[in-house]
Amino acid sequence: MELGLVKPVNLDTEMRNSYLDYAMSVIVARALPDVRDGLKPVQRRILYAMSEMGVHPTTPYKKSARIVGEVLGKYHPHGDSAVYDTMVRMAQDFSLRYRLVDGQGNFGSVDGDSPAAMRYTEARLTHLAEEILDDLEKDTITWGENFDGSLREPQVLPARLPNLLINGSAGIAVGMATNIPPHNLTEICDAATALIDNPEISVEELMEIVPGPDFPTGGLILGREGIGSAYSTGRGKIIMRAKAYIEEGRAGRFNIIVTELPYQVNKATLAEKIADLINSDKLDGASLVRDESDRSGMRLVIELKREAQPKKVLNQLFKYTAMQTTFGANMLALVEGKEPRVLTLKRMLQHYVEWRHLVITRRSQYELRKARERAHVLEGLKIALDNLDAVIDTIRRSRTVDTARTNLRENFKLSEIQANAILDMRLARLAAMERKKVEDDLAETLKQISYLEDLLEHSTKIYSLIKQDLVALKEKYGDARRTRIIAEATGDFNEDDLIPDIQVLVTLTDKGYVKRLPHQTYKRQQRGGRGITGIVTREMDAVQHMITCNTLDTLLFLTNKGRIFTIRAHEVPDASRMAKGLPLVNLINLQPNELVTSMVSVRDFDTTTFLTMVTKQGKIKRTPLDAYGRVLSSGIIALNLEDGDELAATRLTFGKGQFIVVTRHGQAIRFKEEEVRPMGRDTTGVNAIRLDPKDYVVGFDVVVPGCHLLLISDNGVGKRTDCTDFPLQGRAGGGVRAMNLTDRTGLLAVARVVHPEDDLVVISNKGLVIRLFAADVKELSRTAMGVNVMNMRDKDGVASIARVPADGESGTSSGAQQLDEALGGPTAVLAANKRSGAGMNGNDGDGSH
């Protein structure tokens, strides 16, 4: 009996070598994608097997079990769950930015639901997957044997599509892992084109084209620091945040609505986490979470308690749940199919361009070889057709096919291939039309040969083809970015990140209830309409102020005690037109018996802009706006008030305009802004108009050439009068008659400088609102009484008016543009609010846009 050979080995060395072999097998053959086609081996085998099965985008679906069996039996000898799970992920629109498999049936959900068993689902390739497989048959890639040597499989795919960057990849190998974020196809195609045009392009320049990842689930990315690190070094932490907004719910409560989640966040798990925080009282202010998602999109609703502060609760959600999370980018991929490397954005694009250059080169060589073979045959056929009688005679006199072949080669100097082609030629080819077709075909083939030879001699022309492919891909498959990137932001909560910059209306009632709603809420009506309900006020409550602004503007609240507070417009709760709103004391620190008498919206605290204030007793003061740029939460002094006086109106002005001041009894004075010298915050001001006993200021505005002064009385009677009808006087005069007031009209309620094409929103004390064009109000002289603008119901009266800039429905006229430029945007809102029958008529204004 022969004894076996015993070979002594060092156990430590053997373990090291064996583990290294295992590690490299996992790295190369399982976990990491190839930088050229962006696919792992199992993904590549699935796409190739489906292509070989004929499961194309235009063919019927095939059972997933059949596809999985094909992959397992021919190319991937592992568990069926590994193959099916991979195919499922390639079919999920929330996993891949651009799906490669078109699935039919239950392929899972963003809630973490498992897909149906493979015997129930069906699949086929997508058009994008076809782009990855394009030109596979043209000797463009390297082939290798499958696991048992019975078949050949591609080692890499031609990948006309920059798949690695647009779909990303994630995988854990031995001792290393990859996590490449997905991107927008349009941006990646543009970046690759820019790299071809300028090989020395920097990462910073590429980031101007590719600002960051574009996740399939949308959401937000906070800041560019992590993106810059990932693109320049291959590693970086990208902060992702859910997209959420605040809306009014039932019974005056507010809800937080989540419509988009960070990439790879499970919605059901998130809802469960929020519910746990609510039940354990760790989420202050929330009472309930429910999922209202449907086919139209995601909608996760977090109901808040009545006294909750929505911004605070949203901040807590970002802090304690996966509504804010981090994507750890680690851009690791296999280079040349075997060497794992961490790659920058530029290097990934370079590898893609180099691979496409090689693919097109090999494709062109293949097509050139085929064209030359085709031309060789056609040249033989042409010789035969040119010597038709001699060729026929030669064949006729030959005893066998082999003899005929030999005679043809000798007599006409043909190759064996040409001789065989002549012998195989059908008699129908002898027709004149067919002979012409051979000649044309030969000419076209020679032209193609010349083109391919020239292409292969000039590599720059191959780069032009790559660019043409990129343009075609962008036009065919490009789409809009889903993930919004917030520049210069950190992980700390910043509500601006979630707020779209849109125009809104902000209203404030006498009892201090404030709300915000879109300016399109009120449709235009004809002059004299009764209006629609705009706000449900509390008992003995009335609308005091209404202002048009943008959500990202800063609102200045000036009070009867001469103090000023600031908040951002989007911090005012969004509400429906029937809602009461939120008490203003929840937003600013008002003292007892302190009332807001004026509102102004400001985009920037410009040093060239002034905050001009007029008091009820006719005092006027002009202070540089930057003096109010930093307002304490407890407020600061805006102006000193004399005993018994209150702030009546506030406007943003620019130093060289003209002012018009209007009183309750219908007097008006126009004078130059230069007559009011700039003053500091802690001052009282100078006289603007001399008042009669029991009269007080209700309106203050800036005069603009070509515009009119709009006046509306308590009973809804109004008119427009050309501003030039009011003589230019010196400050502190008694003014002139602005409107003929009678018992039918009531006293003057509001005054505005408007352009005829402006939109107006008029609101009554009981919350009725009418929207109309300024031109709908008749233009009359100073001494005229006016026409009905809004029909008042029992014991109701006009409270305020706001100008809404012309939108796409009517276009913005040059006059309206002039008004915006002169006033910095929508003008001051003048409001009337009676207190005990003889109180002041508060008015307010809005700022620049």
Q: Would you kindly provide a brief summary of this structure?
A:
With 849 residues, the protein is α+β, with helices and mostly antiparallel strands.
Q: What are the salient characteristics of this protein?
A:
single chain, 849 residues, alpha+beta, Topoisomerase II, domain 5, Gyrase A, domain 2, 4-stranded mixed beta sheet, 18 helices, disordered C terminus
Write the layout of secondary structure elements.
Elements: H1 11-31, H2 41-53, E1 62-63, H3 64-74, H4 80-91, E2 101-104, E3 122-125, H5 127-133, E4 143-145, E5 152-154, H6 163-167, E6 169-172, E7 177-180, H7 185-197, H8 203-209, E8 220-222, H9 225-233, E9 235-241, E10 243-248, E11 254-260, H10 267-279, E12 286-291, E13 300-304, H11 310-320, E14 324-330, E15 332-335, E16 339-342, H12 345-386, H13 388-397, H14 401-412, H15 416-424, H16 432-457, H17 459-477, E17 484-486, E18 503-509, E19 513-518, E20 532-533, E21 543-550, E22 554-559, E23 563-568, E24 582-583, E25 596-602, E26 610-615, E27 619-624, E28 636-637, E29 647-653, E30 658-663, E31 667-672, E32 686-687, E33 697-703, E34 708-713, E35 717-722, E36 736-737, E37 748-754, E38 759-764, E39 768-773, E40 787-788, E41 798-804, H18 814-823, E42 830-831
Parallel strand pairs: 8-17
Antiparallel strand pairs: 1-3, 2-3, 4-5, 6-7, 8-9, 9-14, 10-11, 11-13, 12-13, 15-16, 18-19, 18-21, 19-24, 20-39, 22-23, 22-25, 23-28, 26-27, 26-29, 27-32, 30-31, 30-33, 31-36, 34-35, 34-37, 35-40, 38-39, 38-41, 41-42
Helix pairs in contact: 2-3, 7-12, 7-17, 12-15, 12-16, 12-17, 13-14, 14-15
